[in-house]
TrEMBL record:
Matches recorded under PROSITE patterns: RCK_C, RCK_N
Keywords: Ion transport, NAD, Potassium, Potassium transport, Transport
Ranges where the RCK N-terminal domain occurs: 1-117
Record-linked Pfam families: TrkA_C, TrkA_N
Coiled-coil regions, chain positions: none
Domain of life: Bacteria
Keyword Glycoprotein on entry: no
Protein name: Trk system potassium uptake protein TrkA
Domain RCK C-terminal, first and last residues per copy: 137-218
The keyword NAD is annotated on this UniProt entry: yes
Organism: Streptomyces filamentosus (Streptomyces roseosporus)
Length: 225
């Protein structure tokens, strides 16, 4: 997979290093000469250019990329890069970094963004995820299709504890993608039974989140034990 990353700061270089270790081709783009540190990520391609300029993106051959990541520290730049990547070059997957949570509402398909990653929001979500049982926590927003990656830890009193995945009437526009049980990561087959304490990860439409939370948090009656 070929990936172009706009922004060769600490965030961009870290992403590049991870992707290279996983066998992908990576091009780092930055307009600041001081950011071009080839020795820090020697396996990557480097381009000294303004990623907001069409001529620069032509030089980067963005049309050959499977993914573009807008990872600069400037939200305006990230939005422009995302829009150009999607509309001018037809890049299948555009991921954008959100620096200021107040700008998060802009990072959607109208600006060419498929996935918006807000570091402050993600850190907050991870804190909530670590301490919340029975509450739905939004981990990641997928701009395209208005879907989110959400997590809920099944409380002991949930009526779904002990019920098979295939026997649950899940809300429309939701999909259970992973069950984390202790140190194990389980594929949620229809025969798999849910257990109290399971961390359940869903991709769900935002409009269905409340319904999903109500379903998972519903209490057992005393006679159920």
């Amino acid at each position: 997979m070929r990936v172009s990353i706009a922004g060769a700061g600490a965030v961009g270089r870290s992403i590049a290093t991870e992707l290279l270790e996983n066998g992908h081709e990576v091009l780092l783009i930055d307009k600041a000469p001081t950011a071009i540190s080839v020795e820090r990520v020697p396996m990557a391609e480097w381009l000294l250019a303004d990623a907001c300029e069409i001529t620069s993106l032509d030089e980067a051959a963005l049309q050959r990329c499977n993914v573009v990541i807008a990872a600069t520290g400037d939200d305006k730049v990230n939005l422009v890069v995302s829009l150009l990547a999607k509309t001018e070059y037809g890049v299948p997957r555009v991921v954008a970094r959100v620096n200021n949570p107040k700008n998060e509402w802009l990072f959607n398909e109208s600006w060419g963004v498929d996935v918006a990653v807000s570091t402050p929001r993600l850190m907050s979500a991870l804190v909530e995820e670590a301490v919340s049982v029975g509450d739905l926590v939004r981990l990641l927003r997928f701009s395209h299709g208005d879907a989110n990656l959400v997590e809920l830890t099944l409380p002991p009193e949930s009526a779904l504890a002990g019920i098979r995945v295939g026997d649950v009437a899940w809300p429309a526009d939701t999909s259970l993608v992973t069950i984390i049980r202790g140190t194990r990561v389980l594929t949620p087959s229809p025969e798999e039974s849910l257990e109290a304490g399971d961390e359940l990860l869903f991709v769900a439409a935002q409009a269905r989140e409340e319904q999903l939370e109500d379903l998972l948090s519903v209490r057992r009656s005393p006679e159920d034990g």
